Amino acid sequence: MRGSRQSFVSPEEALAVCEMTVRRSDPDRYFASLFARAGKRPLLFVLYAFNHEIARAAEVAREPMMAEIRLLWWREAVDEARQGRPRAQPAAIGLAELIGRGGISAGALEALIDARGGEIPSAPFADLTALQAHADATSGALMRIAASVLGWDGELDELTREAGTAYAIAGILRAIPFHAVRGKTFLPADMLAAEGLTANNAVSAPNNENLKKAVSDLAEIAQEHFRRARRIGIPRQVLPAVLPASLVPTYLTHATRRSRDILRDASDVSLFRRQLILLRAAAFGRL
User: Fold this and answer.
1) Percent above pLDDT 70 for the chain
2) Which whole-number Å values give the CA distances from 7 to 15, 44, 84, 90, in the listed order?
């Protein structure tokens, strides 16, 4: 993660790299961004490339200390981008454009980094309330920042909290096999305990009805957040920011299939089907 203050690519090249990164690593937000005005898309790609970098800090680091170091690197990168002297990394260079052209505060970006720090422990959430707060501080906050990039300065807290929480929980359920092989779970400890499970045996025990029940209960909570988000009117201007949440019902259906081996079977939806769902939601202007 070393970087200098000497950019090795131009801002235009950095923005192009950010776009490629998001297209590869975050296709939901990439496709949703295509419904934004052309001039806003590069800044959305920077935001989502930055989110990808900080979200993977705890995933790629073998030790908690290494994850903390990666996040510290990004805190420093945000500060230097704010000063107009970004580090020589495409997303870091893009941050200078995002702060300068998009009017996004460094504080909002630093808050995202702080929230990602909560993902470092092997069992980060003691209860459902902690998980929901984290989902809003990451996925919900990302939607709020994206809405600001799109030029919206109105009230969106309820919409982004509900949509962001639903999308984040759906993502956690989809990623159970990925985290399980690393001995990690994002399922709240209180919901596991209600089924006689702990963070340790939940990811090491054979696929069982107790774990499926905990997953099913969490999926229903995500579904309720989605229902509440769907009842809220979405200003057309900010639709691309919350559009990924339209995928929640389909993701939850796949994640809770009775035949699925929760710890081993990746639960995913084809890219083509996801694009159709996003296209339909964009056409109707609602989740």
Assistant:
1) 95
2) 13, 21, 11, 9
